[in-house]
TrEMBL record:
InterPro entries: Acyl-CoA_Oxase/DH_mid-dom_sf, AcylCo_DH-like_C, AcylCo_DH/oxidase_C, AcylCoA_DH/ox_N, AcylCoA_DH/ox_N_sf, AcylCoA_DH/oxidase_NM_dom_sf. It comes from Streptomyces roseus. The lineage of its organism: Bacteria, Bacillati, Actinomycetota, Actinomycetes, Kitasatosporales. It holds the Pfam family Acyl-CoA_dh_1. This is Acyl-CoA dehydrogenase. Its cofactor is FAD. Keywords: FAD, Flavoprotein, Oxidoreductase.
Length: 399
């Protein structure tokens, strides 16, 4: 295996870093997240037209670039460096793989080209704070564990009189759910006898759909509360009668592994940038007549952070090549980002503790991502369980 990046990948990284360096500084990020959409629509269209960013992982037959998951991870490492607020994660990383895996030929042909072009954005809606469970990152995504399981709560689906489907219920933490043109809603159906979870397509103008942006710790990861009141929906896939829900769960788990690798690359990029900004600061900040960075204790702390960041980057690259390792790579990267962001605030001194300082953008991203996709110890515990590290002797005999 050749682990070196190609000339095309290096050029993509360079071009993306150049664009984001000009258009996505800390001030631009703060301004973009306070717009109604939560991101800079003009910049999003520029990234779509010039680099094909939303369609990197979409097949060429559907208007995408047709690149590998490694290319998407490299791109997201750069968006992570800049903390780019955009619908890239919700659309390209979560929604596109599910539509590709589960959609009919007609659905793929209708949805993937506009998603790849950036004109259509999508969001995955799952009940409650269950995104990491639905993606099988912190536990098995058994339907009863996160999608309602026939009990109160979650989103329920029932066949409509017109041959379609009707949804009712709510989802409280939907990434980019307030601005997405299309929602992929995970809903429970079948009652007790045929309990299963299926995915449904809900356009933004569907009757009975209400959504509102929520206040979040990290404004670069906007979330919305989705309410469905007898809302018409289209099943993602061909035939609900023959669907057991196993295909949906398998697709969610596969999407989770790939998404974890991308998120790991994004977190590694953010950690690397937080470290670079801190190194730049301690080189210029003087105390007792010498730069702060010249003190041995500070050098040791920065060296430890460098090791953490490089380990996270290596793990993210490997997970992009082998998504089965996505959960472990994500744990490594989230931990590296949390530690690096915390140390950045400490090493910036008193100014770093002010909430308006740019260092807090990275601290908020670290805390919010661990709440959404972690925590780190659960990511590692689930990966260890799946690898059989904690299998008891009785379980081994049974196997």
């Amino acid at each position: 295996m050749d682990a070196a990046f190609t000339a095309e990948q290096d050029e993509m990284r360079r071009t993306l870093r150049e664009i984001l360096g000009k258009r996505c500084g800390p001030d631009e990020v703060k301004a973009a997240v306070r717009t109604a959409a939560g991101y800079d629509r003009e910049l999003w269209q520029q990234l779509a037209l010039r680099l094909g960013l939303p369609g990197i992982a979409v097949a060429e037959e559907y208007g995408g670039v047709g690149c590998t998951p490694v290319d998407l991870a490299l791109a997201c490492e750069e968006t992570g460096r800049a903390l780019l607020p955009s619908p890239l994660l919700a659309t390209a990383v979560l929604a596109v793989p599910l539509i590709t895996a589960l959609g009919t030929a007609a659905q793929r042909s209708a949805l993937l080209p506009p998603l790849a072009a950036g004109g259509l954005t999508a969001a995955l809606a799952v009940p409650g704070p269950a995104l990491s469970t639905a993606l099988a990152l912190t536990g098995e995504n058994t339907p009863g564990e996160w999608s309602g399981g026939g009990r109160a709560g979650g989103v329920q689906a029932r066949p409509g009189q017109d041959g379609g489907w009707r949804l009712y219920g709510e989802a409280a933490q939907v990434l980019d759910g307030h601005s997405a043109s299309l929602l992929l809603v995970a809903a429970h159906t079948g009652g007790f006898a045929r309990s299963r979870t299926l995915l449904f397509l809900v356009p933004e103008d569907a009757p009975g759909l209400a959504r509102a942006r929520q206040a979040t710790l990290d404004e670069t990861r906007p979330q919305a509360r989705i309410e469905l009141r007898d809302t018409p929906a289209e099943l993602l896939g061909a035939d609900a009668d023959s669907a057991t829900g196993e295909a949906v769960l398998a697709a969610l788990a596969a999407t989770g592994g790939a998404a974890a690798a991308v998120l790991a690359a994004e977190a590694a990029g953010a950690a690397g940038q937080a470290l670079a900004r801190t190194v730049e600061y301690v080189r210029g900040r003087e105390q007792f007549g010498r730069p702060v960075g010249s003190f041995q204790a500070v050098k040791h702390r920065l060296a430890d952070l460098y090791v953490q960041v490089q380990a996270a980057r290596s793990a993210a690259y490997y997970a992009a090549w082998d998504p089965r390792q996505g959960g472990l790579a994500l744990a490594q990267a989230l931990e590296a980002l949390r530690i690096t962001a915390g140390e950045a605030i400490q090493l910036h001194g008193g100014i770093g503790f002010t909430w308006e300082h740019d260092a807090h953008l990275y601290f908020k991203r670290a805390a919010a991502d661990e709440l959404l996709f972690g925590p780190v110890h659960r990511l590692r515990a689930h990966a260890a369980h799946r690898a059989g590290l904690f299998t008891t002797p009785q379980e081994k005999v049974a196997v």
